[in-house]
Design brief:
This protein has about 240 residues and is mainly α. The chain is about 65% helix and about 0% strand. The protein is built from eleven helices and no strands. It has helices at about 10-55, 55-65, 70-85, 95-105, 105-120, 135-160, 175-180, 180-195, 205-215, 225-230, 235-240. The longest helix has about 45 residues, at about 10-55. It is flat.
Length: about 240
Protein backbone atom coordinates (compact mmCIF):
# COMPACT_ATOMS: atom_id res chain seq x y z
CA UNK A 1 0.00 0.00 0.00
CA UNK A 2 1.26 3.44 -0.88
CA UNK A 3 1.30 6.00 1.84
CA UNK A 4 0.18 9.45 0.78
CA UNK A 5 1.48 12.48 2.64
CA UNK A 6 -1.07 14.65 4.34
CA UNK A 7 -1.86 17.93 2.62
CA UNK A 8 0.04 20.92 3.95
CA UNK A 9 -2.53 22.74 6.07
CA UNK A 10 -0.51 25.98 6.03
CA UNK A 11 -0.30 25.96 2.23
CA UNK A 12 -4.05 25.38 1.97
CA UNK A 13 -4.72 28.23 4.39
CA UNK A 14 -2.45 30.54 2.38
CA UNK A 15 -4.22 29.64 -0.87
CA UNK A 16 -7.60 30.33 0.70
CA UNK A 17 -6.35 33.64 2.07
CA UNK A 18 -4.92 34.62 -1.34
CA UNK A 19 -8.19 33.74 -3.04
CA UNK A 20 -10.20 35.76 -0.51
CA UNK A 21 -7.85 38.73 -0.96
CA UNK A 22 -8.21 38.59 -4.75
CA UNK A 23 -12.00 38.37 -4.48
CA UNK A 24 -12.01 41.31 -2.08
CA UNK A 25 -9.81 43.38 -4.40
CA UNK A 26 -12.17 42.61 -7.27
CA UNK A 27 -15.15 43.73 -5.17
CA UNK A 28 -13.33 46.96 -4.26
CA UNK A 29 -12.48 47.65 -7.91
CA UNK A 30 -16.12 47.07 -8.93
CA UNK A 31 -17.38 49.34 -6.13
CA UNK A 32 -14.91 52.05 -7.13
CA UNK A 33 -16.04 51.92 -10.76
CA UNK A 34 -19.69 52.17 -9.75
CA UNK A 35 -18.87 54.96 -7.31
CA UNK A 36 -17.10 56.97 -10.04
CA UNK A 37 -20.17 56.77 -12.28
CA UNK A 38 -22.56 57.72 -9.47
CA UNK A 39 -20.35 60.60 -8.36
CA UNK A 40 -20.14 61.81 -11.95
CA UNK A 41 -23.94 61.96 -12.25
CA UNK A 42 -24.25 63.64 -8.84
CA UNK A 43 -21.62 66.35 -9.37
CA UNK A 44 -22.80 67.06 -12.94
CA UNK A 45 -26.23 67.84 -11.49
CA UNK A 46 -24.80 69.94 -8.64
CA UNK A 47 -22.52 71.90 -11.00
CA UNK A 48 -25.43 72.54 -13.39
CA UNK A 49 -27.64 73.91 -10.59
CA UNK A 50 -24.78 75.95 -9.15
CA UNK A 51 -24.08 77.59 -12.53
CA UNK A 52 -27.76 78.60 -12.74
CA UNK A 53 -27.63 80.07 -9.22
CA UNK A 54 -24.45 82.03 -9.99
CA UNK A 55 -25.96 83.44 -13.18
CA UNK A 56 -29.00 84.76 -11.31
CA UNK A 57 -29.50 88.50 -10.62
CA UNK A 58 -29.52 88.00 -6.85
CA UNK A 59 -26.10 86.31 -6.91
CA UNK A 60 -24.56 89.05 -9.08
CA UNK A 61 -26.00 91.81 -6.93
CA UNK A 62 -24.55 90.23 -3.79
CA UNK A 63 -21.14 90.11 -5.44
CA UNK A 64 -21.38 93.76 -6.49
CA UNK A 65 -22.36 94.92 -3.00
CA UNK A 66 -19.20 93.40 -1.55
CA UNK A 67 -20.65 93.15 1.97
CA UNK A 68 -20.12 89.39 2.05
CA UNK A 69 -16.81 87.83 0.95
CA UNK A 70 -16.93 86.26 -2.50
CA UNK A 71 -15.79 82.88 -1.19
CA UNK A 72 -18.67 82.73 1.32
CA UNK A 73 -21.22 83.56 -1.38
CA UNK A 74 -19.84 80.83 -3.65
CA UNK A 75 -19.86 78.35 -0.77
CA UNK A 76 -23.50 79.19 0.00
CA UNK A 77 -24.37 78.70 -3.67
CA UNK A 78 -22.64 75.31 -3.62
CA UNK A 79 -24.57 74.17 -0.54
CA UNK A 80 -27.85 75.39 -2.06
CA UNK A 81 -27.07 73.46 -5.26
CA UNK A 82 -26.46 70.26 -3.28
CA UNK A 83 -29.77 70.62 -1.43
CA UNK A 84 -31.62 71.32 -4.68
CA UNK A 85 -30.06 68.23 -6.30
CA UNK A 86 -31.17 66.06 -3.38
CA UNK A 87 -34.72 67.42 -3.66
CA UNK A 88 -34.69 66.40 -7.33
CA UNK A 89 -33.71 62.84 -6.37
CA UNK A 90 -30.00 63.06 -7.21
CA UNK A 91 -28.26 62.25 -3.92
CA UNK A 92 -24.61 61.74 -3.02
CA UNK A 93 -23.80 58.00 -3.32
CA UNK A 94 -23.06 56.14 -0.07
CA UNK A 95 -19.48 55.37 0.91
CA UNK A 96 -18.16 52.03 -0.38
CA UNK A 97 -17.78 49.13 2.05
CA UNK A 98 -13.96 49.34 2.16
CA UNK A 99 -14.20 53.02 3.18
CA UNK A 100 -16.74 52.24 5.88
CA UNK A 101 -14.38 49.55 7.21
CA UNK A 102 -11.69 52.21 7.62
CA UNK A 103 -14.11 54.37 9.58
CA UNK A 104 -14.67 51.56 12.10
CA UNK A 105 -10.98 51.58 13.05
CA UNK A 106 -10.77 51.13 16.83
CA UNK A 107 -8.30 50.63 19.70
CA UNK A 108 -7.65 47.00 18.81
CA UNK A 109 -6.76 47.80 15.20
CA UNK A 110 -4.43 50.59 16.29
CA UNK A 111 -2.63 48.38 18.80
CA UNK A 112 -2.19 45.57 16.27
CA UNK A 113 -0.78 48.02 13.73
CA UNK A 114 1.61 49.34 16.37
CA UNK A 115 2.83 45.83 17.17
CA UNK A 116 3.36 45.05 13.50
CA UNK A 117 5.94 47.83 13.16
CA UNK A 118 3.91 50.98 12.46
CA UNK A 119 4.57 52.47 15.88
CA UNK A 120 5.88 55.78 14.52
CA UNK A 121 2.72 56.29 12.44
CA UNK A 122 0.10 55.20 14.94
CA UNK A 123 -0.13 55.70 18.66
CA UNK A 124 -2.69 53.16 19.92
CA UNK A 125 -5.43 55.63 19.19
CA UNK A 126 -8.73 55.24 17.32
CA UNK A 127 -7.59 58.06 15.06
CA UNK A 128 -5.77 56.75 11.99
CA UNK A 129 -3.97 60.03 11.42
CA UNK A 130 -0.27 60.02 12.41
CA UNK A 131 0.69 61.92 15.55
CA UNK A 132 4.44 62.47 15.66
CA UNK A 133 5.63 63.36 19.17
CA UNK A 134 9.40 63.29 18.69
CA UNK A 135 9.60 67.09 18.89
CA UNK A 136 8.04 67.00 22.36
CA UNK A 137 10.69 64.68 23.84
CA UNK A 138 12.89 67.39 25.42
CA UNK A 139 9.97 69.24 27.01
CA UNK A 140 8.40 66.05 28.37
CA UNK A 141 11.76 64.82 29.66
CA UNK A 142 12.21 68.03 31.68
CA UNK A 143 8.64 67.74 32.96
CA UNK A 144 9.24 64.15 34.10
CA UNK A 145 12.53 65.17 35.80
CA UNK A 146 10.70 67.92 37.73
CA UNK A 147 8.00 65.46 38.74
CA UNK A 148 10.61 62.95 39.97
CA UNK A 149 12.41 65.65 41.98
CA UNK A 150 9.10 66.68 43.52
CA UNK A 151 8.33 63.06 44.34
CA UNK A 152 11.71 62.57 46.04
CA UNK A 153 11.33 65.81 47.99
CA UNK A 154 7.91 64.70 49.16
CA UNK A 155 9.24 61.31 50.25
CA UNK A 156 12.17 62.96 52.08
CA UNK A 157 9.77 65.31 53.85
CA UNK A 158 7.57 62.42 54.95
CA UNK A 159 10.61 60.47 56.19
CA UNK A 160 11.72 63.43 58.32
CA UNK A 161 8.20 64.00 59.58
CA UNK A 162 7.62 60.42 60.71
CA UNK A 163 8.90 59.14 64.01
CA UNK A 164 12.02 57.03 64.03
CA UNK A 165 12.95 58.03 60.50
CA UNK A 166 9.91 56.26 59.02
CA UNK A 167 7.01 57.82 57.08
CA UNK A 168 4.06 58.87 59.18
CA UNK A 169 1.35 56.16 59.10
CA UNK A 170 -1.35 58.81 58.68
CA UNK A 171 0.27 60.32 55.59
CA UNK A 172 0.35 58.78 52.13
CA UNK A 173 2.31 59.69 49.01
CA UNK A 174 0.00 60.37 46.08
CA UNK A 175 2.23 59.73 43.07
CA UNK A 176 -0.64 60.23 40.60
CA UNK A 177 -0.75 63.95 41.29
CA UNK A 178 3.01 64.25 40.82
CA UNK A 179 3.78 61.77 38.06
CA UNK A 180 0.65 60.80 36.16
CA UNK A 181 0.22 57.74 33.98
CA UNK A 182 -0.68 60.01 31.06
CA UNK A 183 2.54 62.01 31.43
CA UNK A 184 4.63 58.82 31.42
CA UNK A 185 2.72 57.58 28.37
CA UNK A 186 3.39 60.80 26.44
CA UNK A 187 7.06 60.66 27.51
CA UNK A 188 7.38 57.11 26.14
CA UNK A 189 5.73 58.02 22.85
CA UNK A 190 7.95 61.07 22.42
CA UNK A 191 11.07 58.98 23.12
CA UNK A 192 9.87 56.33 20.67
CA UNK A 193 9.30 58.81 17.85
CA UNK A 194 12.50 60.78 18.53
CA UNK A 195 14.82 57.75 18.54
CA UNK A 196 12.98 55.16 16.46
CA UNK A 197 11.72 54.89 12.92
CA UNK A 198 8.72 53.35 11.25
CA UNK A 199 10.67 50.35 9.99
CA UNK A 200 13.00 50.11 13.02
CA UNK A 201 11.11 50.72 16.31
CA UNK A 202 13.22 51.67 19.32
CA UNK A 203 12.59 48.42 21.21
CA UNK A 204 11.34 47.60 24.67
CA UNK A 205 14.68 47.25 26.49
CA UNK A 206 16.04 50.78 25.77
CA UNK A 207 12.66 52.25 26.69
CA UNK A 208 12.55 50.43 30.03
CA UNK A 209 16.14 51.51 30.75
CA UNK A 210 15.11 55.11 30.10
CA UNK A 211 12.14 54.85 32.44
CA UNK A 212 13.50 52.78 35.33
CA UNK A 213 17.26 53.45 35.31
CA UNK A 214 17.86 56.87 33.77
CA UNK A 215 14.64 58.65 34.75
CA UNK A 216 14.16 56.58 37.95
CA UNK A 217 10.41 56.36 37.49
CA UNK A 218 8.84 54.02 40.10
CA UNK A 219 7.24 50.93 38.57
CA UNK A 220 4.15 51.62 40.66
CA UNK A 221 3.61 54.80 38.63
CA UNK A 222 3.18 52.88 35.37
CA UNK A 223 -0.47 52.50 34.46
CA UNK A 224 -2.59 51.39 31.52
CA UNK A 225 -1.58 54.26 29.23
CA UNK A 226 2.11 53.74 29.94
CA UNK A 227 1.95 49.98 29.29
CA UNK A 228 0.10 50.48 26.01
CA UNK A 229 2.71 53.03 24.91
CA UNK A 230 5.44 50.54 25.88
CA UNK A 231 3.85 47.98 23.57
CA UNK A 232 4.13 50.42 20.67
CA UNK A 233 7.91 50.52 21.17
CA UNK A 234 8.36 46.78 20.62
CA UNK A 235 10.39 45.64 17.63
CA UNK A 236 8.17 42.61 17.01
CA UNK A 237 5.00 40.93 18.28
CA UNK A 238 7.24 38.35 20.00
CA UNK A 239 8.94 41.07 22.06
CA UNK A 240 5.52 42.45 22.99
CA UNK A 241 4.32 39.06 24.22
CA UNK A 242 7.38 38.67 26.42
Amino acid sequence: ATKHSKPNSKAIARKLEDRENKERLLEIATEEEQLKQQLGVYFDKVNDIQSKIESSEKFTSLLKEGKVPKQEIKQAAREAAKKAAEKQGVVHPPLPSWWQERMTYDWGDALIDDLMGNSSDLTSSPSVYPIYMGGEYGRLQRKVERAIRGLKDQERFLMEEGSGGLPSPTTTIDRKNVLSDKLISDFIRAYRDAHGKRTTPIGLVPTLELLLRESQIPRSSLGTYAYVSLLTCCKSPLEARK
